[in-house]
Amino acid sequence: QVQLVESGGGLVQPGGSLRLSCAASGLTFGSYSMGWYRQAPGNQRELVARISNVGLTNYADSVKTRFTISRDNVKNTVFLQMDSLKPEDTAIYYCASASNFWTLINIQTVPYWGQGTQVTVSS
Predict the structure, then answer these.
(1) Is the sign of the CA dihedral 97, 102, 33, 16 positive or negative?
(2) Which of 11, 16, 59, 63 would you call most buried, defined as having the most Cβ atoms within 10 angstroms of its Cβ?
(3) What is residue 49's predicted lDDT score, i.e. its pLDDT?
(4) What is the number of other CB atoms lying within 10 angstroms of the CB of residue 106?
(5) Which residues of 13-38 are buried (b: 16+ CB within 10 A; e: fewer)?
(6) Which residues pair with 5 in a beta bridge?
(7) Taking the CB of residue 102, how many other CB atoms lie within 10 A of it?
(8) What residues contact 68, with CB distance under 8 A and at least 6 apart?
(9) Can you point out the beta strands (E) in the chain?
(10) What's the pLDDT tens digit per position in 44-65?
(11) Partners of 47 in the beta sheet?
């Protein structure tokens, strides 16, 4: 059974930083691509960043210069370093995984999801 458990969310002031973690189990982590998504109230869930099993990365334009996705294939964990946070980054952040890097683009086809962690950017 695949489990994805996010941590690291919280309340931060504008301009601050947070580092999200997602611990994976029940899958051959090194063979899977991983993604971070977010959903703000009233909005659709959107892809924020993704990383392939060999480290290829891709970002949404809104976060490209501020967020960094990385992975540790020994600890079966994927990270999202978020810097220069803005109020519009406030959302629930979800970790997800798929066997194919391109599958992560289409939310409807992503098979495995975590429960999410709340990120609030406010003064």
Answers:
(1) negative
(2) 63
(3) 98
(4) 10
(5) eeeeebebbbbbeebebeebbbbbbb
(6) 23
(7) 12
(8) 49, 80, 81, 83
(9) 3-7, 10-12, 18-25, 33-39, 46-51, 57-59, 67-72, 77-82, 91-98, 112-113, 117-121
(10) 999 999 999 999 999 999 999 9
(11) 37
Report residue 63 as tokens: 């976060």
The residue type found at 65 is: T
Determine whether 71 is exposed, middle or buried from the number of CB atoms within 10 Å of its CB (0-12, 13-18, 19+).
buried
**What is the share, in percent, of the chain residues with pLDDT greater than 90?**
100
Please state the rounded mean pLDDT for residues 91-104: 96
**Mean pLDDT confidence for 106-111:** 94
Candidates 119, 86, 123; CA nearest to 10 is 119
Report the alpha-carbon distance of residue 21 to residue 6 in Å, rounded: 6
- Please report the pLDDT score of residue 117 as a whole number: 98
Confidence of residue 20 (pLDDT cuts 50, 70, 90): very high
**pLDDT > 70 fraction of the chain, expressed in percent and rounded:** 100
